[in-house]
Design brief:
This protein has one domain: Conserved Hypothetical Protein Mth637, Chain: A. The protein is α/β, with parallel strands linked by helices and 106 residues long. The protein is built from two helices and seven strands; from the N terminus they run E-E-E-E-H-E-E-H-E. Strands 1, 2, 3, 4, 5, 6 and 7 form a seven-stranded mixed β-sheet that branches.
Length: 106
C-alpha cells in the first residue's frame, strides 16, 4: 500500500480517492490508506450527513471553500472520489502536505 495520497489531474480538476469512516469519535484527516486519503467524521452515514461532514472537513483542512470540494463518486460507499474544480494537482498535494498528510502528484 502507498503511504502517500495520490493526487491526479484531469478534465480541468484535481481528484483524490477517499476512505471514509463515518460515526467516528473524532473528525480528522487520518493519513494515507493505499493511495487514498483516510478521513474520519463524527456524522452518521445516513441521508448524506457523513458526505456533508467530509466535504466540510476537507475544505477547512485544505483552506478551500466548500464549493470547491465535491464528492464525484461513491456517495453511498466508504470509498469515494473527491474532485477539486479548477484546481491544480500540485496545489492540492502541497495543501495536503501542509495539513500533515503525505501526498504526491500522479
Amino acid at each position: 500500500m502507498s503511504d502517500e495520497v495520490e493526487v491526479r489531474q484531469g478534465n480541468g480538476c484535481a481528484r483524490i480517492r477517499l476512505r471514509v469512516k463515518a460515526g467516528a469519535r473524532r473528525q480528522r484527516l487520518h493519513g494515507a490508506h493505499g493511495g487514498a486519503l483516510k478521513v474520519e467524521v463524527g456524522a452518521p452515514p445516513e441521508r448524506g450527513k457523513a458526505n456533508d461532514a467530509v466535504v466540510r472537513l476537507i475544505a477547512a483542512s485544505l483552506g478551500l471553500a466548500r464549493g470547491e470540494v465535491e464528492i464525484a463518486t461513491g456517495t453511498t460507499s466508504r470509498d469515494k472520489t473527491v474532485v477539486f474544480a479548477g484546481a491544480d494537482a500540485g496545489d492540492i498535494a502541497a495543501r495536503l502536505v501542509r495539513a500533515g498528510v503525505p501526498a504526491r502528484v500522479e
